[in-house]
Amino acid sequence: MWWLVVSQRKRVVGGALLGSSWMVGLMLPPYLLSRAIDDGLTADDSTALVTWSGALLAIGVLNAWLAIMRHRTMTKIRMDAAFRSVRVVTEHVTRLGATLPRRVSSGEVFTIGFGDVAQIANVLTVTGPGLGAVVAYAVVAVLLLAISPLLALLVLLGVPVLAVLVGPLLGRLRGAESTYRDHSGRLASRLIDMTEGLRVLNGIGGKHVYAERYRRHSQTLRTEGYRVGAMTSWVQALGVGLPAVFLAAVTWVAARLAAEGAITAGELVSVYGYAAVLVVPVSFFIEGAYDLSHGVVAGRRLIRFLALEPHAADPAAGLDGPEESATLHDPASGVQVRPGQFTALVSARSADSAAVVERLGRFTESDATWGGIPLAQIALRQIRERILVADNEAALFPGTLLDVIGGRSQREREAVERAVDAAMVRDIVLGLTDGFDSRVQAGGRNLSGGQRQRVRLARALLAEPEVLMAMEPTSAVDAHTEAAIAARLYAYREGRTTLVTTTSPLLLDRADVVCYLVDGRLAAAGRHSQLLATQPEYRRLVSRGLDEPPGGTVSDPASHKAQETVR
Questions:
Q1: Which residues contact 374 (CB under 8 A, 6 or more apart)?
Q2: HEC sequence for 190-257
Q3: Roughly what angle, to the nearest 10 degrees, separates helices 265-306 and 46-96?
Q4: Hey, what long-range contacts does 531-536 have (CB within 8 A, 24 or more apart)?
Q5: Among 377, 387, 395, 457, which residue's Cα sits nearest to residue 421?
Q6: What span, in angstroms and rounded, lies between the C-alpha atoms of 420 and 427?
Q7: CA atoms within 13 A on the CB side of 203
Q8: 346 bridge partner residues
Q9: How is 455-488 classified by DSSP, letter by letter?
Q10: 425 to 26, 70, 431: CA distances (angstroms)
């Protein structure tokens, strides 16, 4: 929050001056009114009455202008703070890159980028009318001191007493809001996960189970919301009620002094006016403390998010990678991806295969090597340019189909056509109204799951990486399409290093070497046919239990895929 203030110091100073001038201006009418009463009405002096009344009108017009300018300036300050915070969050999201989903949920990022940023920006109101309230408080104390030291002492002591009464509630509110904020972030993550996976949840019949979990979590959030609401209602009630009680106390003391003749009728009116107007800065004190309580909770969340460091601060720093294609080795699993080969990675748990790919693609820290050189020591920029990890969660930005497939580089139409045919995207091109010029919505929402998968694969192939690692590239397509992709993918990448994670027999049958993982470690490696003959667990995994007919021979895996598709 201090950084947000310093970043727009001139505007903040202007807001503080306008807020202070406006607050002090609110204190002048009671004084002018008292002079009009004492010097004009009581003394029966028409000239003095008109003069002081004119001054009262002038200060009223000036205060109206100051109020407008103060509000405009403070709105700009809050909006500037919000946009600066959003920009910082966006830049940090970009800097974290592919490490972000592994460290922070999408719901948490969403809540930070919208809810927390707004709360932090709102705190900057303290720099305008909040500071003005302090100045106005001091001015009223000086004016009252000239009338009655007792009244001045009452005002000086009254506001700290209000702070003492409200302070403990603000502390409890901060704790309740912190808990509420935790639940809110987790619930937002669950909602986003459920929305993104709704089609899959429907397919496996898990929608109602997940919805019930969301309902229970939502009820927990509602309970915490009631706690926050109860605290907030007390703070806001005290913000309105305590200043009124304070006004009544000051007015009662002033009335007693006027009855005793210690102050004049005009001074009594001015004291009432000062006390009445003092409700405004006192309310700002309480409101500012309330906003600050919100802002501290939100600010801590944002700071913790900004404290996350990417795995490599400088993508250009490090050693050069091997000059020619070289073997990628993952000591944690024992997997070796040899140059120029089409390698398949098989595991009963897809997370084990994904972990190997993430280590070899340097998305997680590991002891993996490339040509004997530790990946951790190679410049990250080189790794990203030469090794491409293609997964089914890669973003599809809005644009024409040609732009989506082409990615960041402009490629010749012939190259695009080859990638499109290899990934079996031709039917998508023909099926859309404007072919390659058809618009693709953000995230590919106007495409089916299988179409999005093939578009992502075409984009990865068109990038022509030295090493391509594709995670489950055919998991959402039918048997016929999968068989075609398997043949074309192998032909397209012939002679170049390729790794796919899959349990599809159609892809495995094309692989030069298959690495079979058990509990994350390499259990066997060889051709698909060899592993079928020598590894019973592998055979059961890739053929889904259909591999042992009554005759005891291994049946055709491709036919099993077709049978599964029909079912």
A1: 367, 368
A2: HHHHHHHCHHHHHHHCCHHHHHHHHHHHHHHHHHHHHHHHHHHHHHHHHHHHHHHHHHHHHHHHHHHH
A3: 10
A4: 532/557
A5: 457
A6: 9
A7: 6
A8: 516
A9: HHHHHHHHT--SEEEEESTTTTS-HHHHHHHHHH
A10: 70, 58, 10
| Mean pLDDT score, 142-154 | 79
Three-state DSSP state, 364: coil
CA dist 273 → 141, 263, 268 (Å): 13, 15, 9
Distances (CA, A) of 524 to 345, 472, 477, 533, 559: 11, 20, 28, 12, 25
The dihedral sign for the CA sequence 56, 61, 65, 67: positive
CA 253 to chain centroid, in Å, comes to 54
What is the Cα–Cα distance from 200 to 206, expressed in whole angstroms? 8
Cβ atoms 117, 303 nearer than 8 A: no
**pTM as predicted:** 0.61
pLDDT value for 509: 94
How far from the centroid of its chain's Cα atoms is residue 96's Cα? 12
Which two three-digit tokens encode residue 312? 């490599």
What is the pLDDT, as a whole number, of residue 440? 93
Query: Do 361 and 391 touch, CB atoms closer than 8 A?
Result: no
- Torsion sign over Cα 547, 553, 557, 561: negative
Tokens 């959030």, residue located: 221
Quick: pLDDT tens for 78-122: 999 999 999 999 888 888 877 777 777 766 777 787 788 888 888
Query: What would the two tokens of residue 276 be?
Result: 């009445």
Beta bridge partners of 500: 344, 470
Which amino acid type is present at position 258? A
Q: Which two tokens stand for residue 365?
A: 């820290």
> Which DSSP state fits 556?
P
518-542 pLDDT, tens digit per residue, is 999 999 999 999 999 999 999 999 9
Position 323: which residue type?
Answer: E
Rounded to whole angstroms, the Cα distance separating 358 from 352 reads 10
Task: Report helix, strand or coil for 156.
Answer: helix
Cα(52)–Cα(36) distance, integer angstroms: 5
CB 361 within 8 A of CB 369: no
Q: How many CB atoms are closer than 10 A to CB 285?
A: 22
Most distant CA atoms of the chain, gap in Å: 123
Q: How far apart are CA 335 and CA 522, in angstroms?
A: 6
